[in-house]
Amino acid sequence: MIMLKNIHSLKLLYLLFFLIIGFSSCKEDVRVVELFEKGQLNATASTTSIKADETVTFEDNSTKVQSLSWTFQGGSPATSTAQNVTVTYSSGGTFEAKLVVLFIDNTTAEKVFTIDVEAPPILQGPYKSAPISIPGTLEVENYDVGGEGLAYHDTEAENKAVTAGSARYRQDDGIDLEVSADGSLVNIGYTAADEWVEYTVNVQASAAYDFEFFVASSPGGSAIKIQLVVDETTFTDLGELPAFPGTGGWGTYVPVKVEGINLDAGQQILRLYFTGGSVNVDKINISAPGVVVVEKYGIYTEGSATAGSIGVTTQNNSMVAISATTDAYEGSEALYIKFDPTTTNQYGVHATLLPDPSPFDASAYLGGYYNVALKTTSVGKMKIRIRDGSGGNFWVMLDDAVKTYGFERDGNWHALKIPLADFKTDGGASPDLSTLQNVFVLRSDEQSATPAAGEDWDYYVDDIYLTKE
User: Mean pLDDT across the stretch 349-356?
Assistant: First the structure.
């Protein structure tokens, strides 16, 4: 019994000891518990007011971010998930740029910037991208873009021809353009005194030109004169269409010629000024004895393209590296196609220019010529190739042994003029020129030895265009 009492006493002592120690430990071991700190949205824009074609840099400096997304109304790129983004705005207006952030606790926040973009100034220019070539035919409905007071002046904003039931020829037609019932003819009508229209023209040669107006007027009437003036800043009188008897109806057109109008060579602005109303005009044929126009459509050229032009993108297919160079045949830039044997050798030497936009319709040049300037010292057989929408390849062979198209491999520039009819397959098939998907391919001959390291296969390429003569 004495032993049991001692044991119970010891238990009580131990219990008392632990209570005292535990109590004192709790006092000293107090922990501070902090609550989770949420992520903070913090984003900036380098500016919120710019001019068209300028940029804004957006930065996200938010904390505890799981993911983020930007959307840029009116900008390029339109979206991004990068932390820092530089955005280009090409047109005027007020646009929203929005950042949405997903934090690590799965909550979200967003910030919106308002970007004011000053619109680019309205500029006058040719309606179909390229100036109208003189000599040639000036279709009067194809007056310059630029709007009222810049490219034309009309005494009222209404298109009276459309109000009267005509189809609409162009959306910016403050001029009263009238489309015939069968759609074959578009004319300027409802003319009034002091109205005018302007055309950006490219005069091929300084000469005295004959202007043949195709005009119509009311039965029994007499048309008021049309004055010709030139020069985009200080307009100079060139001459005028004389009064002519009524043609018998607004749809009855007759030619009336004004001869000996002196024009200087080069690009300029030609204005038709109506000194009165009561005349419809369809077109003007402009000619000069001895002056011949070579119609030219640009593919890769800085020269004058009288009929328009397209853009191109480069494609390194095999064993080449394409780059721009200032060693040009014309203008300030050419393409350098450098032989690179370290790249894929699936097709031999193979470099491509793609039309932009694609496909390219060159059907108007059937029977015309493919022009290109080349420079090289390579003597290997080389094809110039095009491809149509069917996937077919059509080529001409450049063979130094026979100096194809007069091409010399002497390290100097040479301009080649190749009939488009020469582009064929081995079987003699011709391309569909209305669906070109490759406008220039430089390709080593499949029958020749595979190009090897150390060999000369470098080429310079420039001034690619089509002509119709």
Answer: 94
